[in-house]
Amino acid sequence: MIMASDSRTPPEGNIHRSGVFLMFIGIVCLGMPNAASAEPQFQYSCLFEETLAELYKKAIFDPNATVNWRAHEQNGLSKDSFTTEDGGMIHGLVWRAPNPQGYVIVVQGTSMLAAELYNDLPDFRSIGLDVYLYDYRGYGASNKLTTTLEGMISDYRKRISELNELPGYSFHFGYGISMGGIVILNAVLDLAEPLHGLVFDSVPHAIPWYAFCPNRLNPVRILPEKCTIWLIIAAERDRVIGRRAAKFAKRATASCGAEQQIKRKYGHVYMDRNFDERANAAVQHFASLMAQATIED
Questions:
Q1: Residue 156: in which H helix or E strand, if any?
Q2: CATH no. for residue 105?
Q3: Tens digits of residue pLDDT in 72-119
Q4: Coil/strand/helix, residue 181
Q5: If we measure between CA atoms, which residue out of 44, 251, 31, 60 comes closest to residue 148?
Q6: 70 lies in a domain?
Q7: How far apart are CA 80 and CA 3, in angstroms?
Q8: Three-class SS of residue 233?
Q9: d(CA 129, CA 287)
Q10: Residue 6: helix, strand or coil by DSSP?
Q11: Residue 1 within a domain
């Protein structure tokens, strides 16, 4: 695994700290999102996050960012895609383990592209997990679709259901980063076949009020009765989202039994010089669940 350096850190923190101001700048410069242009099934339910997405796509992402396929072609890395409920295509990649026993689907923050993130993920392949990573609708290689939060949740719900049906995978895991944790948590609600484990890193307990998102999407409102297969990693005081990540961890631990790892020295996930430590915690959490399931069998 390659350590995520400051030079490769998405500037998510700066944007969120001046959130309200940037929302209005985004509306003025980019125009309000036009619901008529969205896919018929999905309405704009989260204006601020979707306006931020437009800012990220226009001002932050490297339009020339690409995956170095040649460097990894002998190492199990390949392109992957799936069809959305509204007939679009989501593109990304799969990085296969030598002897896969399961998969982990990575749902990144909304300031991240697959091409910029894939080489800095925790080493899930070392414990026998194929890694799936996609660009959100409207992002990067999936740029033919309109970005809506409801659409993003629908996309991951569909893809996780599809992956759960693939033969050869005994373990199904999810790894949610920042806003991606909210996406995957909403996506796995009421799945016919739930995931066997989840790791949330730097995920807020709720979306800020100024995001104009429905409360039903907030993690603390949709905690299950039991979540002992969760690990929540958080900074005691995150410079991007304040105490909201620690609050999610503490609430889930008290309410449904999640495991938590909160440390004063931590920062926001890809802004943290302790990234290797928290990445190893994510890998070990899944390894422990796999070992426990094997013993029980």
A1: helix 149-165
A2: 3.40.50.1820
A3: 877 899 999 999 999 999 999 999 999 999 999 999 998 888 988 998
A4: helix
A5: 44
A6: no
A7: 25
A8: strand
A9: 10
A10: helix
A11: no
Pairing state of beta strands 89-95 and 77-83? antiparallel
* Averaged confidence pLDDT in the chain: 82
Length of the chain measured in residues: 297
* Total of domains in the chain: 1
CA distance 74 to 132: 17
- Residue 126 is assigned to a structural domain of this protein: yes
CA distance 151 to 143: 13
Torsion of CA 32, 36, 40, 41, to 10 degrees: 30
Domain span at residue 203?
9-63+75-296
**DSSP letter, residue 58:** I
SS3 at position 235: strand
Q: Which of 46, 31, 62 is nearest to 141 (CA)?
A: 62
288 φ/ψ sector (left φ>0, alpha ψ -120 to 50, else beta): alpha
3-class SS of residue 129: strand
Give the pairing of strands 89-95 and 129-134.
antiparallel
Q: pLDDT tens, 116-149? A: 899 899 999 999 999 999 999 988 888 888 888 8
And the tokens for 22?
């940037």
Name the strand (E) or helix (H) holding 106: strand 102-107
The values of phi and psi at residue 17, to 5°, are -70, -25
Check whether 209 has a pLDDT greater than 80: no
Asked if the structure places residue 267 within a domain, the reply is yes
Q: Which residue has the tokens 């070392």?
A: 126
Q: Give the containing element (helix H, strand E) for 78.
A: strand 77-83
53 within 8 A of 110, measured Cβ to Cβ: yes
H or E segment to which residue 26 belongs: helix 19-30
